[in-house]
Specification:
Structural class of chain A: alpha/beta
Number of strands of chain B: 0
Number of strands of chain A: 24
Number of helices of chain B: 2
Radius of gyration of chain B: 17 Å
Strand content of chain B: under 5%
Order of helices and strands of chain B: HH
CATH topology of the largest domain in chain A: DHBP synthase
Chains: A alpha/beta, B mainly alpha, C mainly alpha
Helix content of chain B: 40-55%
Largest sheet of chain A: 8 strands, mixed
Distance between the termini of chain B: 42 Å
Helix content of chain A: 25-40%
Oligomer: heterotrimer
Number of helices of chain A: 19
Shape of chain A: globular
Largest interface: A-C, 102 and 76 residues
Radius of gyration of chain A: 23 Å
CATH superfamily of the largest domain in chain A: Carbamoyltransferase, C-terminal domain
Shape of chain B: elongated
């Protein structure tokens, strides 16, 4: 019976996760607490918050596990900068500087900062941590596991077989090594299209539906797919960016045309250039999907398993996941909600727990693993700020009423979500059938590019009526897309992407009771158990965590109400 | 100080790792880099953007 | 008038006229506002007083607005000069509230706002003289807030420190801490430059030799198995304890109801 803390950080997506006696007690991304998007520093606030939430002190920890091996990483960085002599001259000082200036000492720093004995702090392997996060939170006793990301220590892609039987095992079947990496391919093109790397990838995924995959010939030079699932990047087209990233080089612009300047407004209707960029995105998406299908088929061939688990940054590509669910030959597919590096923290903690003899955790049914919001504190602070506060008799009914009449409601319940998606704990809700509220939401609050859709949330037992293929193992965590059924395509236009699909979340009363109640009430008012659900955060900031952030948002954005627990808070007197 | 002890032990691990991978010829380079890294001790704890300070230049 | 302010008054007319530099300076101010905002949000989380929490939150919202205003004007200036605008300003933090404690933090913020206010008055006058009404209006609008920030932080500091004398003492100590900080930043800049040059030199000298030794193994793009055995005891690859197949467990409980109430949440 052990208490194990898992930590990820130093590159992007710093997070801490606590597993006690085989139960996931808390999992928190540092950015939610520090309010710095993609905070990459050591997640000390998150770590201490996890411990405090569990009522533990650092001395109670049996093990702290860091999600990757810093020395292997140092080796890969050093070797690859030397191998590409002399091209990496400009990157060498900073790459090695960040390694030797901090990253390679991370295990010591964790021990010192948390006050844990050094011999209780260890590291695991990056892709193993990803694989553990996917398999051990899945509902499958046995599964093939595919981990695909930019690069860990030196691996970009790995195939595993997760089993029970003679002990709980996660056996590696094979790996593909840096620099051949789907994550780096996607990241390089994300940068080419003018978005921020590690932020903009899902924007590229949204843009892809607006283009046609016309550039297969050009992309054949960027990546070659083999029959056994492996692939090879056309290295001359990529360039060394930093210690872990590959950007694109001048050869890429020679091949695809000039890069898109960042932050130029998008105009897909009138600009031929923008349509070409959309075609590039579409080709990239198609190629990525085919690569993943190839990997999945190889996984099926090698394991004979009926279930597939996915993790690693590339597993956040919901469109590709949908295709995997349909075409890979697996009956069931599961993606860890925090498929990026944050998930590595949870995977590391689970690996540590299993090694110390604890059972694997039960299947993840809710991503609400963060810190709770305190309605009492919210009430006090709201009054201090001069906002109107009242307790609602029937919260679900009131929220449904507001949403039905075109109002935009911020909805905060319980513990905030683990992973990049808001799943009803820190959500902004709006009417899915009302184009005006969607328009207002985007223009005044989210300020996103015009090609990015909003997503629906629906009651699980009604999902099949509105979304083809729903529900499945992916829909509770919004890791897939489903086509909207023909009958409702018009009505649900606000949550529909240009290709007729939606990144749908399904919700059950057992796992998200408050949101399920709202959806049931909406069914009574607008005839749809569906709401438009977008994350509760402003442009460029992390998802809201506590009442301070929530009230700050209310005071600076034109939402109509903020609901915290059973409180309804508004600007002006109640 | 135990911190220094930890760091020295980590250096030992790093060097053993490189030696074990037949990358022993990188060891001298590593030692030089570690020494150069001492220059980085000055940079700990500072943010890259100073709050509440508006540069005059 | 402090030395810094005198220097600012001297360089202001020159600095803003350098082509392209105006947009860059405003962007720098936007980033500084973002950094202030983050420190204030953390202060709001950590302060034990409800009234101060509300005050820091309001201040943080002002800084957010200022950052957006500075960034917008910076973008306009850049586009006017046919230059690419900057990406949205992001900043990191030094966790000043934790580092300094609330009193010294307030003193530091007060000094920052005071300094900023004086500087922005200079800039407003400068742009007024130059006939750039938009930029002048920008600084005027922000000045209103800065004046308010300057006075509320002083009032809070006096209240917290317990009197004028104690408040002045905190301000002096904050000034010393700032000076040490400036020194360290300058040191970092110098050390960074030396380090970069030294590293490039090392790379150029040792690169060819090392590259030769490494060129040998060119990794093929196909399935690999683990490159080598794990060098140090880390979490073992194959846990050896045998376990029975776990009994199907009930869905993960919403643990919020079951855990012991924490004494003080570190994240707040």
């Amino acid at each position: 019976m052990a208490a194990v803390l898992g930590i990820s950080g130093e590159y992007h997506d710093a997070a801490a996760a606590l597993v006690v006696d085989g139960v996931i007690v808390a999992a928190v991304q540092e950015e939610r607490l520090s309010r710095i998007k993609n905070d990459a520093r050591l997640p000390l606030h998150a770590a201490r918050a996890c411990l405090a939430h569990a009522g533990l002190a650092a001395g109670d920890l049996d093990r702290v596990v860091f999600y990757e091996d810093p020395i292997e990483k140092l080796e890969r960085v050093l070797v690859s900068t030397l191998r590409t002599f002399p091209r990496a001259l400009r990157q060498f000082p900073r790459a090695l500087g960040t390694q030797l200036g901090g990253k390679v000492w991370v295990i010591d720093r964790i021990a010192e900062a948390l006050g844990v004995a050094r011999d209780r702090v260890s590291s695991t392997e990056h892709h193993r941590a990803h694989a553990a996060s996917a398999f051990f939170t899945s509902p499958y006793p046995r599964a093939a596991v595919l981990t695909v990301d930019g690069v860990g220590e030196a691996t970009s892609t790995a195939l595993w077989h997760g089993t029970h039987g003679d002990g709980t095992q996660l056996r590696e079947l094979g790996r593909i090594e840096y620099p051949h990496s789907l994550g780096l391919l996607y990241a390089g093109l994300t940068a080419y299209l003018g978005f921020e790397v590690n932020e903009g990838e899902y924007k590229v995924m949204g843009l892809a539906a607006y283009g046609q995959p016309r550039l297969r010939d050009e992309f054949a030079r960027l990546i070659r797919l083999h029959d056994d699932g492996t692939f090879e990047l056309g290295l001359p087209y990529f360039a060394y960016l930093a210690d872990a990233d590959l950007g694109f080089g001048p050869a890429m612009e020679a091949l695809l045309g000039p890069r898109r300047p960042p932050h130029r407004p998008w105009d897909l209707e009138h600009s031929a250039d923008d349509r070409r960029y959309a075609d590039i995105a579409a080709t990239l998406q198609q190629v990525t999907e085919e690569a993943l299908l190839g990997l999945a088929r190889e996984a099926r061939r090698r394991t004979g398993s009926f279930a597939l688990c996915l993790a690693g940054g590339v597993a956040l590509n919901a469109v590709a996941n949908a295709r995997l669910a349909r075409e890979s030959g697996f009956d069931r597919v599961f993606v860890h909600p925090a498929a990026g590096d944050a998930g590595g923290a949870l995977g590391a903690a689970i690996l540590g727990a299993i090694e110390l003899g604890d059972p694997r955790p039960s299947a993840l049914t809710s991503a609400a693993l963060g810190l709770p919001i305190d309605p009492g504190a919210a009430c006090q602070l709201a009054r201090e700020l001069g906002l109107g506060v009242r307790t609602a008799g029937d919260v679900a009914g009131e929220v449904a009423q507001l949403v039905a009449t075109g109002k935009i409601v911020a909805f905060c319940q319980g513990r905030f979500e683990w992973g990049p998606r808001a799943l009803g704990q820190r959500s902004i809700l709006a009417n899915p059938a009302d184009p005006d509220s969607r328009e207002r939401l985007n223009r005044a609050i989210k300020r996103r590019e015009p090609f990015r859709p909003f997503a629906p949330v629906v009651l699980r037992d009604r999902a099949a009526t509105y979304f083809e293929g729903a529900p499945d193992d992916l829909t509770p965590f919004m890791t897939t897309v489903c086509p909207i059924t023909a009958a409702y395509r018009e009505r649900l236009a606000s949550v529909r992407h240009v290709d007729g699909s939606a990144r749908v979340q399904t919700v059950e009363p057992a796992t998200a009771p408050e949101l399920a109640a709202v959806l049931a009430a909406l069914d009574r008012t607008i005839g749809l158990p569906i709401a438009l659900n977008t994350s509760f955060n402003g442009a460029g900031e992390p998802i809201i965590a506590n009442e301070i952030d929530a009230l700050g948002f209310l005071m600076s954005h034109p939402i109509d109400a903020l609901v915290v627990g059973e409180l309804v808070i508004t600007r002006g007197a109640a | 100080m135990s911190r220094l002890g930890n760091r020295l032990r980590t250096i030992g691990r790093i060097l053993r790792h490189f030696a074990s991978r037949q990358r022993w010829f990188l060891v001298p380079l590593l030692l030089v880099l570690l020494c150069a890294g001492v220059l980085l001790l000055a940079t700990g704890g500072l943010s890259y953007v100073a709050p509440f300070i508006y540069s005059i230049f | 008038m402090t030395l810094r302010h005198a220097l600012a008054a001297l360089v202001t007319p020159v600095v803003w006229r350098v082509p392209g530099h105006g947009g860059r300076k405003l962007y720098g101010f936007a980033r500084a506002e973002q950094a202030s905002r983050i420190d204030l949000l953390l202060a709001a989380q950590r302060t034990p007083s409800l009234a101060r929490r509300a005050a820091y939150l309001r201040h943080a919202l002002d800084e957010t607005r200022h950052a957006a205003m500075f960034w917008r004007r910076s973008t306009e200036l850049r586009l006017d000069e046919q230059r690419a605008p900057f990406t949205p300003p992001i900043a990191d933090t030094e966790d000043l509230f934790e580092r300094l404690g609330e009193r010294r933090f307030l003193a530091f913020v007060h000094r920052g706002e005071q300094r900023g206010r004086a500087q922005f008055e200079l800039y407003a006058r400068h742009f007024g003289k130059r006939g750039d009404g938009r930029t002048e209006a920008l600084f005027q609008a922000i000045l209103v807030d800065e004046q308010r920030h300057e006075s509320y932080t002083r009032a809070l500091l006096v209240e917290l420190a317990g009197g004028e004398g104690a408040a002045r003492a905190e301000l002096r100590r904050a000034a010393l801490w700032e000076a040490w900080r400036m020194w360290r930043r300058a040191g970092r800049a110098v050390a960074g430059a030396i380090y970069t040059i030294a590293m490039m030199g090392i790379y150029l000298v040792t690169g060819p030799v090392a590259a030769l030794g490494l060129r040998a193994a060119k990794r093929p793009a196909t399935w690999q198995l683990s490159a080598s055995p794990a060098p140090e005891p880390t979490v073992p690859q194959k846990p050896t304890m045998s376990q029975k197949l776990p009994v199907p467990q009930p869905p993960l409980p919403h643990v919020r109801a079951e855990l012991p109430k924490p004494a003080r949440e570190a994240g707040r």
